[in-house]
Amino acid sequence: MIRVYIALGANLESPKEQLDDAIVALRSLAEDANVQVSPYYRSAPMGEIEQPDYINAVACLTTQLAPIELLDALQTIEQQQGRVRNVRWGARTLDLDLLLYGDEQLSLPRLTVPHYGMKQRSFVLVPLSDLAPQLILPCGTPIAALINDNLRAEVKQLGTDH
Ligand code: ROI
Q1: Of 14-23, 51-60, 81-90, 94-103, minimum mean pLDDT range
Q2: Would you say the CB of residue 89 lies under 6 angstroms from ligand 1?
Q3: Where do the structural domains in the chain lie, given as residue ranges?
Q4: How far is the CA of 40 from the centre of ligand 1 (A)?
Q5: 9 CB less than 6 Å from ligand 1?
Q6: What is the tens place of the pLDDT at every residue in 131-148?
Q7: Please, what is the Cα angle at 78 between 16 and 142, to 5 degrees?
Q8: Are 42 and 54 a contacting pair, CB within 8 Å?
Q9: Is the pTM of this model over 0.90?
């Protein structure tokens, strides 16, 4: 059984509800229907395209799914929630990114793990460290070494009552 971390992001069509619904769907992938979820954060859109602020969070679960099976399952949930893959770096109803699959480092045609951009993204690192403050990334870097006040200031924590 493998512990995995998944980043959630949404900035269209009631983004908070998109995350709530996604968490319900993620339970079906978890070995024990148990999903831990970080606080939700509001973050300014990264990238050049003008678009609404995002709601972001990170979820953790244990699963028996193989990496590609998990990727397929995440993409199915995205599609069920109306995700249309059109504009690169454009707005989206739901984005589910596989951040970490145990300690594995994978470079497959469809999947790179750890997620290529995670170490640069405050809206990933801050909720990830809420869930797992002692985490050591597969490259050997402790998550705590990547978190600082500037990074924290880039995201605004919302309620934790989800
Ligand atoms: N920006 C923020 N703040 N949050 C996201 O989840 C997010 N996702 C993306 C891009 C367009 C890169 N920007 C983002 O895919």
Answers
A1: 81-90
A2: yes
A3: 2-159
A4: 14
A5: yes
A6: 999 999 999 999 999 999
A7: 75
A8: yes
A9: yes
